[in-house]
Amino acid sequence: MKELLKQIKTEALFEIEQATTIGALEAVRVGYFGKKGRLTEVMGQMRHLDPAERPAFGQAVNTIKVAIEAAWTARKQNLEEAILIATLQKEQLDVTLPGLHLYQGSIHPLNQVIEEVEDLFLGMGYTVEEGPEVELDLFNFEMMNIAKDHPARDMQDSFYIDDKTLLRTQTSPVQARAMLKMKGEPLKIICPGKVYRKDDDDPSHSHQFMQIEGLVIDRDITLAHLKDTLLTMVRHLFGPEREIRLRPSYFPFTEPSMEVDVLMQKQDGTTEYIEILGAGMVHPEVLRMGGYDPQVYRGFAFGVGVERIALLKYHIDDIRHFYTNDIRFLRQFKEGVSS
Ligand code: PHE
């Protein structure tokens, strides 16, 4: 009997050692401890023994049982660990592999400039107006005090659609539209939008570009209001220390008229004044045509080039970058990028 027990132990330990899967190990357990397992069977033999021999035999069987169970549990842990390691290795994540790059869109630099200007003027009580890009000659020129044979028409080479309609050459026609809409009431508006001129395209000119028009009409408007408004706008766009220069100029719809330059730093460290907008006090004739009594009302107006501002603000050398939709260019204008 003792020999048999020894043999069972040896075989059981061997089988446990040989089991390489949890399934095989489980089969070993059933083979020894199951209903018909070898140890179970041996235990069954106990009743044929002499009662005096039973305790010693029971103890011997128990010792073997404990030894086999211990080996079995250890092997099971072993196998489970090995399986876990294999799984981890198989499912390993290489965090150094390049991931999926999702690019976040950003607002076009020209729209960023427009939004900045709109923010400022909305805060000062202006409203934002719009007007059509296909405009009547009446609004684009005549109501802006530029009659049919006026030489100033040559200043803005136009795309005509027919005798009476053209692609607007400036945002100034929105002045006329706003005045008619307000029917003689004071007004404060800005109007951003596209304009078209038959200019030759070159790094600083395009046949299509954007302007923001500004118009204020009230009883006591003076040149000082205009100057302060323009300075406020320039400092909002370029920083609080920025200086501007007003130069006398000519526009048929303003009197006096001026061009406004902003002081910029050149790459070599020196500074220069660069023109960014045209402005002036609304011409009495324009007021009158718009339904305002020039004896009672005065106004100021300005028209600023959006591309101009963006070129200077972001140090861009070619206006055509704005229109080619090159994603590499546009990606540089994430929110918060500024001069
Ligand atoms: N409309 C003018 C231009 O396009 C700019 C301007 C607007 C000048 C308003 C004076 C007043 O050149």
Provide structural commentary.
Helix content is 41%, strand content 20%. The chain is an alpha+beta fold. A hairpin with a 5-residue loop joins strand 7 and strand 8 (271-282). Helix 1 runs parallel beside helix 4 (54-90) and helix 5 (109-123) crosses helix 10 (306-314). The longest helix is centred in the N-terminal third of the chain and has 37 residues, at 54-90. The mean pLDDT is 92.
Short description:
By secondary structure, the protein is an alpha+beta fold.
The outline comes out as rod-shaped
Query: What's the helix count?
Result: 11
Instruction: Give the mean pLDDT.
Output: 92
Order of helices and strands: HHHHHEEHEHEEHEEEHEHH
Number-wise, the strands total 9
Report, as a whole number of angstroms, the end-to-end distance: 97 Å
Helical/strand content category:
alpha+beta
Classified by CATH, the class of the largest domain is Alpha Beta
Rg for CA atoms: 45 Å
Largest sheet composition: 7 strands, mixed
CATH architecture of the largest domain: 2-Layer Sandwich
Identify the bound ligands: phenylalanine
